[in-house]
Specification:
single chain, five-stranded mixed β-sheet, alpha/beta, Nucleotidyltransferase, domain 5, about 20% strand, disordered N terminus
Length: about 170
């Protein structure tokens, strides 16, 4: 964990960092940190995925993978990518992993809203189709299969994945 703290700009005394980390379970569980980045001005998107335990640092542009880019697409694809890596590398121990995202939309879509959307044919309360349905369903199915958790964290705890995602868009 020292490596992680050296590479994240957190402005807390060390004892507060450890206390906050324990409350997020990042000391006792194996972790993936995910983030997406999108520039509407450049119409470019990318992802950042980081796992200290598996020595993974991914910075990947996703411009050619989707017809329509957005920050939510990038955030969701970062989570899906982490889960696919986990599925491929460590399926037997997947339940010991937690996947972190600073996107409340993504985490709530997969953990809360999907249950309602499944019942109503993936329609919003206004009767519109749920955006990014395919990615949300894929993530939900992967987290269910792997029995791992998708957890929201504050942006300041996701600095490495954020830097990787921004690097994929802005170089």
């Amino acid at each position: 964990m020292e490596y992680l703290y050296k590479h994240i700009n957190i402005k807390f005394p060390q004892n507060q960092i450890v206390a906050k980390a324990k409350s997020l379970s990042i000391i006792t569980k194996k972790s993936f940190y995910c983030d997406g980045s999108y520039s509407s001005k450049l119409n470019l998107a990318g992802i950042g995925v980081y796992s200290e335990h598996l020595d993974i640092n991914i910075s990947l542009g996703i411009n050619n993978l989707f017809k329509k880019l957005s920050n939510n697409v990038a955030e969701l694809f970062a989570i899906k990518s982490a889960l696919l890596i986990l599925h491929e590398k460590d399926l037997e121990n997947a339940s010991k992993y937690e996947v972190y995202s600073d996107s409340k939309y993504c985490v709530d879509s997969v953990n809360i809203f999907i249950k309602h959307w499944q019942k109503n044919g993936f329609k919003t309360k206004d009767g519109e189709n749920v955006k990014n349905k395919e990615l949300i369903v894929d993530i939900y199915n992967l987290t269910s299969t792997l029995k791992c958790s998708l957890i929201w964290i504050p942006r300041e705890y996701n600095t490495i994945a954020d830097l990787l995602a921004k690097k994929s868009v802005f170089g």
